[in-house]
Specification:
single chain, alpha+beta, PH-domain like, 8-stranded mixed beta sheet, about 25% strand
């Protein structure tokens, strides 16, 4: 007759308990080592620092979640340090990304550049101060010299383009005489090409008193102009303008329409705005070769 040995049973129970305790300590040790490694190798507090510690396969999901939480926290801390002006600049950059990312070739080059707004220090110009009081256009969002494209023959004329919190102005840069004063609510569409160029077309709401119609400009800051004007129109009208990014668009010239086609002969790696584009016009068709 076989009998159970009490000693053997007790030994087995202690062995199983010991195994569980050892496994638990090993698991805790591995987790502690994983967390300690992250703590000792955290990236900087800069939101653009993409470094993050590697881990074992079993921690990949947790590791990614910790990375997301840490990045969200440092973005929050970074935003807390910004004043209202810096927050506005970041908002403009975010709008530019929404509008142009993967849609316009020149967008990627604009990302590291700060939107300066007033490139010619117009705010300090006595003539502007006088004109702003007469037109009630006080706060400058953007100001720079641009090339306005003549719709009749495709020639270029240098003008001063100013975006204010109320709308858009085209001004003679020598005399500061206003040629166009366009309230924000009258700008219904902004058209651009998908290429590396600075062509911007403004489509204006038809108006009985208007004798101007739509118009085009070329600027080194097409991305910035569009982004800032987009926000101005959104703030005033509670809805954004239509943004069209296409090699073909149309301008309304009083009772006629002008069909514009932008043709790119430039390599994507060529420097932007090396020279002004070539323009040919026949009847109601205009080809812009960049």
């Amino acid at each position: 007759m076989i009998t159970n040995n009490p000693f053997n049973n007790t030994h087995t129970i202690y062995f199983l308990r010991s195994t569980i305790i050892i496994q638990r300590h090993i698991k805790h040790f591995i987790i502690r080592k994983f967390l300690t490694n992250i703590y000792n190798n955290l990236p900087t507090s800069s939101p653009i620092d993409n470094r993050w510690p590697s881990c074992l396969k079993c921690f990949i999901e947790v590791n990614e979640e910790l990375k997301r939480i840490f990045h969200k926290w440092r973005c929050y801390k970074y935003r807390q340090k910004l004043d209202q002006i810096e927050c506005n600049k970041m908002h403009e950059k975010a709008i530019a990304s929404t509008i142009f990312k993967d849609k316009k070739l020149s967008y990627a080059r604009s990302v590291p550049h700060i939107f300066c707004g007033d490139y010619i220090k117009l705010r300090q110009n006595p003539k502007w101060l006088k004109m702003s009081h007469e037109t009630y256009e006080h706060y400058i969002v953007f100001a720079d010299i641009v090339h306005k494209i003549n719709r009749s023959d495709g020639s270029f004329v240098q003008k001063l383009l100013v975006v204010t919190t109320k709308g858009l102005l085209i001004i003679d840069y020598r005399t500061l005489e206003a040629k166009y004063i366009i309230p924000a609510f009258e700008i219904i569409q902004i058209s651009l090409s998908p290429f590396s160029d600075g062509i911007v077309a403004f489509n204006i709401k038809p108006h009985e008193k208007s004798q101007k119609g739509d118009f085009m400009i070329i600027s080194n800051h097409a991305i910035e102009i569009t982004s800032k004007l987009y926000l101005v129109i959104l703030n005033i009208c509670n809805k954004p303008p239509i943004i069209s990014i296409s090699p073909k668009f149309q301008l309304n010239l009083l009772n006629t329409k002008l069909n514009v086609t932008v043709i790119s002969e430039r390599s994507p790696i060529d420097e932007i705005f090396a020279q002004l584009p070539k323009i040919s016009k026949k009847a109601n068709d205009m080809n812009i070769i960049i």
